[in-house]
């Protein structure tokens, strides 16, 4: 199976587009793919409890949730305020994932 890195930069405030994009991640995880959803810029708000039903579904289906530490700090969102399963990461973590040969990436 292919590994996927899906990058969400808009977040729930963009309306249904964010939920549809994260829904793609849920379907991939449900099909047995390893999926990492990386939230960056305003997308980090999707890691707040209750902000995105699709993010909760992804976590239930075995997907990983990465949150850009810089973007979260810029929005005064400490890790303690985010979903417990989220992982704060730096850009070097994302770069390493992007450079892995088995990873397909999509930015939204």
From TrEMBL:
UniProt xrefs under Gene3D superfamilies: DsrEFH-like
Classification via SUPFAM superfamilies: DsrEFH-like
Descriptive protein name: DsrE family protein
InterPro entries reported in the protein's UniProt record: DsrEFH-like (IPR027396)
Organism: Streptomyces coffeae
Highest rank taxon of the organism: Bacteria
């Amino acid at each position: 199976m292919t590994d996927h890195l899906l990058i969400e930069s808009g977040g729930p405030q963009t309306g249904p587009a964010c939920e549809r994009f994260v829904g793609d991640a849920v379907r991939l995880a449900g099909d047995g793919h390893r999926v990492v959803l990386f939230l960056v810029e305003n997308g980090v708000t999707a890691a707040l409890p209750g902000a995105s039903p699709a993010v909760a579904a992804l976590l239930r289906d075995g997907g990983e949730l990465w949150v850009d530490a810089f973007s979260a700090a810029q929005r005064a969102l400490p890790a303690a305020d985010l979903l417990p399963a989220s992982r704060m990461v730096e850009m070097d973590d994302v770069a390493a994932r992007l450079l892995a040969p088995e990873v397909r990436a999509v930015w939204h």
